[in-house]
Amino acid sequence: MPASDLTRSIDAARVRNVWVRTPNWLGDFVMATAAFARIRAAFPAASITAGMRGYLRPLLSGSAWFDDVVETPKLTGLGAFWREVRAMRARAFDLAIVLPNSLATGLVPFCAGVPVRAGWRQGRSLLMTVGPTAEVTRRWWQPRLGPRRLATPMPEYYRELLDGLALPPGSARPVLPIADGDREWVAQHLRGLGVGDDERLALFVVGANFGASKLWPPEQFAAAARAVRQRFGLRPLVLVGPAETALGERIAKDGDALCLSRPVLPLDKLKALVARGTVMITGDTGPRHLGVAYDLPIVCLIGPTDPAYTNYCLERTVLIRKDLPCVPCQRKVCPLGHHRCMRDITVDEVLAAVGRLVPASSR
After folding, report:
1. In this structure, are 73 and 113 located in the same domain?
2. pLDDT tens profile 90-104
3. Rounded to an integer, what distance in angstroms lies between the CA atom of residue 289 and that of residue 280?
4. What gap in Å lies between CA 276 and CA 82, rounded to an integer?
């Protein structure tokens, strides 16, 4: 059914209590920030509660989208599910806006009796009272050879969902405020590591929570780090998550770079650091979207994932992608075992992209 047939106009003055279930992944969360801002603007007098993964909570530092936050860890059984349902029922929400597509995130507000439930209906049409249906490339019984649904940039995906509620229009560009205290903490932390306030930083994001298929080989990252320092005069910094410290420190050692692994930066500090950067070299990772939010020049190495999911705000991004018959496979581990989609990307290609993005006057 077309989205236009499922539009339900909401009287904002009558909505007092809103549940917003946020995406679970860093990149998707950042791409949803424009939707958060649009929801806040549409319901200025309502109490808006975010249901979200705990590790993402620091991203809210400096923002005013939500009045309350409920951490929603991955449900591990019926007991956890019903506890979440009972907690939601006790809050008596008027409206639930469910941004993820999973069955569980739609089932909780359904069982809690929230009267208006907005979310994408594909696979859960009985759970949502309003929302579009995605056009799919395969049915559930067909083997997966790529994405399940037709790829759409996620900010547009979220915007189309909110259009179904006839909310006032808004931008699809991510908005991610930074608290002054986080900026100052990062400045002091960098000074303590010997990084001057005026040094221009090349940020290398070397890991990928998605899976090994997204990783560029460590030796190529190290070679690129050495080269950006020699050729462009940029100070290379390696950014890692908690599970990537050994990888990042190895790359930093071989690449004459500094690895920000002690401590691993929480997300409120990470976003302040990204805003301080000159250029970012990354795979298709969550921190890439932090860079987009701060209009940072980005060299993005796309391997197994479909770039159509993230084709937005590309004015200052260079995508490097190999046209191979096996991509995009959307697999966490290369099913063919060779990872050519990432290995075939050369250091010279990355350096040429940096040269296009970093103005000669700033080198």
Report:
1. yes
2. 999 999 999 999 999
3. 11
4. 43
